[in-house]
Amino acid sequence: MLGLEVTVPVACFRKGFAREYWETEELPPPATCYGFLLSFVGERDRRRHVGARVCPALFNQPQRSAVLRTLWRVKERGLLPGVGTNSRPDYQELLTNIQLAIWLDSTEESVVGPSLEERVGVALDHPERIDRFGGLSLGESTHLVDEIRPIRPELSRPLRAYLLAEEGRFSLPVWVDHVGSAGTRYVTGDLVEVDSAVPPPSDRMPRIEPH
Questions:
Q1: pTM score, two decimals?
Q2: Which CATH class for the 2-204 domain?
Q3: Which one of 42, 56, 68, 144 is at 20 to 30 Å from 14 when CA atoms are compared?
């Protein structure tokens, strides 16, 4: 299992059913963290590492605020997105000073070749070997990551991890249908206080799978 520390100055992890007011989740969903890791290693096929288990956690309590921004919509088909009535001002929640841990376990992947865990390890140790493009972001493309590094076991710190629970209080996506919503898959869990020096139980980490 591989543990990472990730810091993001500003981000929004929009709730799936938020429309008029873009609310944010308290931490990035497993599906968002999975996409971030794929981007980190330069993988374009999001099905490449299906079966990986990804567990997000919070070192701190990020500050929450709201901004007024221009959002795109499709009101008139004859106009381009963001033009005329195809845009509107609306509010979006933001989180600032986000300090995360992300654990990754690739033992249940069915991939032929290097696992996502192995590829992330290479990207950390030898970034010159990675072929990728664009800024590394978590959430929207403009929400750039400030730092990513392995968790240091000698620096034990408390944090709240999103672990699976049958009657959990939070539902977060492990797979997102970007065309509609029918294919989006959720799991339920709770934020559980753990120690950063001890990886969470693998069977309680959310598993990335489309079905």
A1: 0.89
A2: alpha beta
A3: 42
Are 118 and 37 in contact by the 8 Å Cβ rule? The answer is no
What does the block give as tokens for 201? 């139980």
Q: Are 50 and 93 in contact (CB under 8 A)?
A: no
* Overall size of the chain counted in residues: 211
Question: Domain locations in the chain?
Answer: 2-204
Residues whose CB falls within 8 Å of the CB of residue 143, separated by 6 or more in sequence, listed in order: 8, 10, 11, 12, 137
Over its length of 211 residues, how does the chain's per-residue pLDDT go in tens digits?
Answer: 999 999 999 999 988 765 667 789 999 999 999 999 999 999 999 999 999 999 999 999 999 998 887 776 666 677 776 676 677 667 889 999 999 999 999 999 988 899 999 999 999 999 999 999 889 999 888 899 999 999 988 888 999 999 999 989 999 999 988 666 778 999 999 999 999 999 999 999 999 999 7
Spatial contact of 146 and 9, defined as CB atoms under 8 Å apart: yes
